Amino acid sequence: MLAQEEGLRRLTHEVVQQCPVTDMHTHLYSADFDSLLLWGIDELLTYHYLIAEMFRHSDVDTDTFWSWSKQEQANHVFQTLFVERTPISEATQAVVGVCQRLGMPILSKDIDELREAWGSRKLTEHIDDVLRIANVRYIVMTNDPFDSLEHPVWMNEGVSDQRFGAALRIDSLLLNWTFASNRMKAQGYTVTEQWTEANRDSQLEETRRFLRDWARRMDALYIAASLPGTFDYPADDCGTAVLEEAILPVCKELNLPLALMIGVKRQVNPALLLAGDRSERADINALERLLARHPANRFMVTMLARENQHELAVLARKFRNVLPFGCWWFLHIESMIDEMTRFRLELLGTSFVPQHSDCRVLEQLITKWCYSRTIIADALAHKYIRLQREGWQVERHHIERDVDELFNGQFWKFVGRERKD
Hints:
The chain is α/β, with parallel strands linked by helices.
């Protein structure tokens, strides 16, 4: 019996490692976007996770650190976390794993040698290598219609690399109407900062037109927003009006899901810039009301508080118009991925997306998917072994079907598109 169960465990790991994945939420870009695609050792070392960790050990003040060039910042992070200390945290181990799998000389502990090794690589071939090693078949970007650096791509030929798709990010429409309206106005839409009963209908119509234009221009797979833990619904503000009368109607019209990432508290320590955000628990009742009031809309949801993720899994048993996805941000660590994958399998079967990389730097795909696959395989193997003990014969084609559904099928079915293979 033990040998049979160990064989089933090995088979599950083999299938999970071999299955290409759709990475349904990242902050990566295709090479069409030039400098917006972050890659290389300096970008890996100055990722905000490592900067936050570095400041816990270093006496350098924040103003001095931010005044340095990127190379100088990377030098200090490398010296602090990889030379003076053992890289034991999740973020530092990820850098070691990337370097090892790409054949980069991390063990030399020489940052200049690492830069030289990366400098010898051609970007287009490097992208191919990273996607091959990570076994990622398709990447969904996060695309901001208000970002002037993105505009030239969308206004011209668009994305040439068919392995990359777009998600239309619209946080400011919900959270900062002043900013959003000014950017929309600059693009020729007839909106104003002031929100009154007299202009309400025209503001909403122009917002709907803006969303339609950009969703079609990008061929967006979904519309997305990152929201604070204080998100409430419904609320007596223009954000609720924009959500109910612009975003959700356009999602329904264009057959697009709305992805909500709930639970970030921004800039609790502004001196750390991107590293200065934290998580906070949200009120699951707000999401429950949203799902109940809009059964014809589809919602992909992830939450940043550990407690909220369990609440979300329970809520998804009650509403089939929600798809829980990924282990977001501070939950993208080994212990949390394991716990979340197990209780999702127990509560939802295979009707969720177990992981997304949330990568900002290209090479992060390698280690984020490497250790996620191992953890997901362990959780699945546990369920298969238990099932077989109950008398159900688990075969390879069952495992292949389940893994493909988790890594690809659930997402493509939910967005209502033909999958990209």
